[in-house]
Design goal:
Order of helices and strands: EHHHHEHHHH
Number of strands: 2
Distance between the termini: 11 Å
Helix content: 55-70%
Number of helices: 8
Number of domains: 1
Largest sheet: 2 strands, antiparallel
Structural class: mainly alpha
């Protein structure tokens, strides 16, 4: 993979993410059916395919490219998670606007910014057993790393640990919180969706 994050890297990365989400759609639907509407896999794939349709025409400006991806995703995927992911992409877009290449060492800070903006948008907090906890785990694990392979491996391992750590805790945010104790022992669908996105990059 490139030594810097560029639009070409984004094109390759999103193509791989789309393939992984398509392969994981049924799993995500089943997870979501336990604590939600059961359509997370469908909505994630629809959003990802919308992004894929924009890849060929993305600008070289990394920030503007990320903004286009965010707009494409939110246009099709109307789910809460889809909106939050688009919000996270918008945060990264703002931080990288005007640059054609971004050092990989900035990934941790981009994840921190995305987590903060997503938390504000969704009124969620760390510890609520949501995708925010996955993002924060990835942020901490990638701090100080400067190569894409190391970043992805560290983030993937950290998110796997976060999913396991939160499994036996109740959900405290979104539709899942309604189920109370039923959510104990269940993996949060959003956390798993983020894990599958990372796996697509491995």
């Amino acid at each position: 993979m490139e030594t810097l994050l560029t639009t070409d890297v984004l094109r390759e990365s999103f193509s791989r993410i789309v393939a992984k989400l398509e392969a994981s759609a049924e799993e995500l639907n089943e997870l979501d059916a336990v604590l939600g509407d059961g359509d997370l896999g469908v909505t994630m794939v629809r959003g990802a395919r919308s992004v894929q349709a924009e890849l060929a025409s993305l600008p070289d400006d990394v920030g503007l490219a990320l903004l286009r991806c965010a707009q494409a995703f939110t246009k099709i995927s109307g789910s809460t998670l889809g909106t939050l992911l688009a919000t996270g992409l918008m945060s990264a877009a703002k931080a990288t606007k005007g640059r054609r290449a971004v050092p990989w060492s900035e990934i941790s800070s981009l994840l921190a910014g995305a987590t903060a903006m997503m938390s504000s948008r969704g009124q969620g907090q760390l510890g609520d057993k949501t995708i925010l906890d996955s993002l924060d785990a990835a942020r901490a694990a990638t701090e100080g790393l400067e190569t894409p392979d190391a970043l992805i491996a560290a983030a993937n391992a950290a998110v796997a640990s976060a999913i396991e750590r939160f499994r036996d805790q109740p959900s405290r945010q979104g539709r899942a919180r309604i189920f109370g104790e039923k959510s104990v022992g269940q993996d949060d669908p959003g956390m798993v969706a983020f894990k599958r996105i990372l796996e697509g990059l491995l």
